[in-house]
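Postdoc handover notes: sequence design on the structure in folder B. Input tokens:
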């Protein structure tokens, strides 16, 4: 039986997902709430191996279908091994990217069929959808610039038009799933972004104490 609360952070590269996840973790810990954080792809031994394949330029062009199935495989392992046990134990689960990244990148960015990717991933997560997803919205140029000179991984080598489709994809997902997804404008100071996230998350987090 699920008793915890599951929050995911989504949005384009460099939107501030990892930054905001660290802040959520600190705030939850401060509130005395048991919390588990994880990231995608990865978060398990199998998932980290899949992540290595997905993000390493040495593998060249991975076709979108392969990419979608690899992400779903990593996610399936993460749900069974980490997320479901933590929710069952009543913990707060914070995940850096999840199912909506597959839709934004592989469907809106990569051109795969929405229903195919959605159904594949619904099967992969085994009913375990987030309770709340914060979409950090940012122009791709701004997000990619924030990443600076850090070595570009395989996703970041895609053309700007791809990243623009991804950004628009996240916004369309928010319209499609308005109960679960909340858009937070991320091109402003991290403190302001966090204040908006925390205002909405805090009551759910406090309920886990
Ligand atoms: N609100 C903000 N304003 C300015 N810079 C920020 C803000 N939030 C994060 N940053 C900085 O931008 C960079 C990218 O942030 P972060 O790693 O949190 O983004 P991300 O969404 O996790 O990126 P990725 O998709 O690459 O994992 C970091 O150097 C971070 O310190
Ligand atoms: Mg990150």
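Designed sequence:
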């Amino acid at each position: 039986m699920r008793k915890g609360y599951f929050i995911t952070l989504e949005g384009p590269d460099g939107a501030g997902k990892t930054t905001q996840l660290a802040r959520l973790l600190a705030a939850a810990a401060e509130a005395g709430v048991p919390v588990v954080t994880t990231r995608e792809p990865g978060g398990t031994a199998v998932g980290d191996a899949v992540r290595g394949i997905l993000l390493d330029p040495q593998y060249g062009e991975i076709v979108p279908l392969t990419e979608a199935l690899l992400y779903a495989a990593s996610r399936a392992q993460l749900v069974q091994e980490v997320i479901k046990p933590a929710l069952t134990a009543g913990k707060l689960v914070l995940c850096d990217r999840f199912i909506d990244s597959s839709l934004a990148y592989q469907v809106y960015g990569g051109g795969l069929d929405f229903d195919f990717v959605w159904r594949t991933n619904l099967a992969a997560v085994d009913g375990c959808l987030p309770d709340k997803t914060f979409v950090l919205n940012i122009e791709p140029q701004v997000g990619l610039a924030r990443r600076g000179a850090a070595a570009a991984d395989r996703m970041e080598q895609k053309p700007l038009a791809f990243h623009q489709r991804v950004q628009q994809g996240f916004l369309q997902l928010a319209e499609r799933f308005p109960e679960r997804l909340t858009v937070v404008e991320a091109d402003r100071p991290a403190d302001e972004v966090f204040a908006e996230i925390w205002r909405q998350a805090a009551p759910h987090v406090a309920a886990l104490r």
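Context for whoever picks this up: The chain has a mean pLDDT of 94. Don't rerun without checking with the PI first.
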